[in-house]
Amino acid sequence: MTKPLLINDIAPDFEAETQLGPIKFSEYAKGSWVIFFSHPRDFTPVCTTELARAAQLQDEFARRGVKMLAISCDDVDSHKSWVADVSAYGKAEVKYPIVADPERKIAKLYHMLPAEAPGHDAMPFTVRSVLIMDDTRRIRAMVTYPAPIGRNFDELLRVVDALQVSDRLHCATPVDWKPGAKVIVPSSVPDDVVGKNFANGLEVVDLPSKKAYLRYGTHHAS
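Structure for Peroxiredoxin-6, as requested:
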């Protein structure tokens, strides 16, 4: 059994067929961030709604330098038929590739399969995994839902925003953060970086402990 993938791991390379043609993942991902999301199978209701929402957000992810990549455990012919339903439902063309993985090889490589259910001999469907990778193919965030539960793609877009602003400003983001809101500036950030990124200074929260560790800074969304 391969080691589970962890945040900061380099995502493994693979070659696969998609409804848009063959891809080699390392070449597809080169120089871009990538959001890679798995689906149990084609022509299933939750998956159709998710892929449609992903199609609606293609331009938003692209503005952030993020390529989209889906995977579903059916073959290419099935994918080609399915995208017509997805596009019709979401009123948006599916421009991102959907990896065909009928033998679950890539799902196994990326640990997108659930634990075996007792007394269930059928090949398991993939769970709803998401991996967000930066432009070095390093995994920066991961989330996994069970097969029956649809994901929130607006939240995934928010995670990308948070990661990218954190990288740019050497900051962290507080609970329920949205682009343009105040960010947290850890005490470990050097003063020269604070002065460069937060010219208006910091707001230190007065806490009962009297420890000045919760500091907010204001930035402007770019």
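The radius of gyration is 20 Å.
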